[in-house]
Amino acid sequence: MIKDFTVLFQHLWYRDFPMSALVQGKMDEKFGAASWTTHIAGCVKGVGDLMGYLTHFEHAGRFDAVIKDFDQNCGERAITHLEWEWKQPAMLGERFNEVEKLVAARGRALFSTLITYSRHEKDADNRSIIERQWGDGPEPLLVQFVTFTYKNGRRHLGQLSAELFVNGKWRTLRVQEALPWNRPGSKWFNPEEPSA
User: Fold this and answer.
1) CA-CA distance, 132 to 27, in Å (whole number)?
2) Model pTM?
3) Would you tell me how many other CB atoms lie within 10 Å of the CB of residue 116?
4) Would you say 83 and 133 are in contact if contact means Cβ atoms under 8 Å apart?
5) CA 16, chain centre distance (Å)
6) Cα–Cα distance for residue pair 35/22, rounded to 1 Å
7) Residue 84's closest CA among 73, 97, 72?
8) Bridge partner residues of 112 (DSSP)
9) Cα(146)–Cα(16) distance, integer angstroms
10) Pair 63, 106: CB distance under 8 Å
11) In this structure, are residues 129 and 91 in contact, taking their beta carbons and an 8 Å threshold?
12) CA atoms of 116 and 124, how far apart (whole Å)
């Protein structure tokens, strides 16, 4: 189930890519957050649809989204609770509360999902905050990290990396280029263009 979600999410990541948020291949901070929030919501809805599930946004005032299935015997059942945040955990420190929201409902879904950005040089700090908030229990937390570097006031996206955190350990499930034109073989790929 988690692997299916991961593959579908990462494939849908390239669909309807938010070009308005990009200026010469680099993310413009002025337009970025709203465009990317909408893009992530579209990817989440697409995954729910393709898996035959129901997707609810801003569910019960607790989560950015919940994907549910429907069982005729027991009604709706949560597959995953989802939170996403434009600001990386290290930027907010202990004010980064997306994981805490997921922890409060841990066990009431098959797994929890966090989608967040991670500056390369802050990767260890970001992971540490997530680890501390999630703990080392057996419940799975799927984290989709969008890595980036920061230069001249803009984010330069690197990779979209799906990582599973279970029992206090990280495991990489899937990694792809975050920008479709940096993925060799894609219809957008241009080997003449420098990577963003």
Assistant:
1) 30
2) 0.88
3) 21
4) no
5) 16
6) 10
7) 97
8) 81, 141
9) 17
10) no
11) no
12) 14
Residue 192 contacts residue 28 (beta carbons within 8 Å)? no
Strand ranges for 35-182 from DSSP E? 54-59, 63-71, 75-85, 111-119, 141-151, 154-166, 169-177
Phi, psi of 136, deg, nearest 5 = -115, 30
Q: How far apart are CA 174 and CA 32, in angstroms?
A: 24
Q: Which two tokens stand for residue 132?
A: 């501390």
Which range among 96-100, 111-115, 162-166 shows the weakest confidence by mean pLDDT? 96-100
Band of the pLDDT at 122, cuts 50, 70, 90?
Answer: very high
- Structural domain spans, the chain: 2-182
At position 47, the amino acid (one-letter code) is V
Task: Give the residue carrying structure tokens 């805490």.
Answer: 100
Beta bridge partners of 155: 27, 150
Closest CA to 50 of 103, 93, 94, 10: 10
